[in-house]
Amino acid sequence: MSSAQQPRGWITAVKSSASRRGSIVFHADDFGMNRAVTDGILRGVEHGLITGTSLLANAPDATRAIREWQRLQQAREVGRLPSAAIRRELDEPETPFELGIHLNLTQGRPLTEGYPTELLDRRGRFAGIGRLFALLYRRRPQHERALLAELSAQVEFLRDHGQRPTHLNGHQYVELLPGLRSALQELLVRHQIPVLRLARERGLLRSTLLYDYRPSNWCVAHVKRFYAGRLEEHARGWGVALPHAYFGTSHAGRINFEVMRHYLRSAAGCGLIEIGVHPATDSSQDAGARAAARGTHDWTDAQRDDDWDDPLAALRPQELGMLTSPLLVELVQEFGLSLGRLSHSHTKHAAKAA
């Protein structure tokens, strides 16, 4: 690809790649939630630095998302991605982009029959993270089989479409809930999923209070970090990779260059850093495309809109702009990082264990 074809500023933004001090992955959640989210993630790979995503298997745009992901991987293989040159400059490995499963028990409708009605609302939708947490915290063994069946069906949806998940994480961080640990272990082993997200975020004082005074975000992020630490105690014996650092528990849809710089200062020298992002195109400018996205699942239009309300919709285009900006390249270079893959954390954890 000639320099004239590159997005302005990308190549000139890159400095020497002689010395890298770690690697970074930009991981997009919610793949398949709707057309705007799917297209935003695809654009973030094609024209930006997204390195992987995870699929919401029960979401309206899930089937199209997988089909478009396969097309994107083919474009990568033949070197037709607009971001290919900058990715080489950032020492990205020549391996496929990563597609994982985004386990969901809090939005939309279950894929399986017989899901516990106690965890559904009156319209048959997942009841939400609050009720799920309360029930799992009280330990209800009678629901464990149904929960495992639903999560398994979501993984199998991805596999039935020809994709083996490269990693596992949860929508609204459900993977952190203590009552799901046995199900998580079963899924990881049964489907040979090699990587589990560990949303144990550091530097919260700097990124949530000193930077942009948000005490509520600080509190919620600390709760997530506590349960991530508990999950780590179990998961280190499961034989899976755990990325060394994570950012995104308190800034969904609000990640910008300044707050990311604050975080990277706290995470310097950690090894592999995962940044959880939530991009999308501007759906308000494409109502027709949203309507065209309907039809993936056999639900009415009214059900679909109610099931998949997106509280981040207005914020997501800003994150997409950040992910496709040459300023992000400069930030990655500033901290001496290369683009990586989640699976590359496995060897380092094995070495530490040894």
What do you see in this structure?
The chain has 15 helices and 7 strands. The protein is an alpha/beta fold and 354 residues long. Strands 1, 2, 3, 4, 5, 6 and 7 form a 7-stranded parallel beta sheet that branches. Strand 1, helix 2 and strand 2 form a beta-alpha-beta unit. The chain is globular. It starts with 9 loop residues before the first helix and ends with a helix. 42% of the residues are buried. The N terminus and C terminus are likely disordered.
From the spread of the alpha carbons, the general shape counts as globular
Element order, helices and strands?
Answer: HEHEHHEHHEHHHEHEHHHHEH
Structural class from helices and strands?
alpha/beta
Low-confidence stretches: 1-18, 287-303, 347-354
Indicate the proportion of strand residues: 5-15%
Radius of gyration: 20 Å
In DSSP terms (H or I, runs of 4 or more residues), the helix count works out at: 15
Q: Could you report the average pLDDT, rounded to the nearest whole number?
A: 85
Instruction: Report how far apart the termini are.
Output: 44 Å
What composes the largest sheet?
Answer: 7 strands, parallel
Annotation, overall tally of beta strands: 7
Helix content: 40-55%
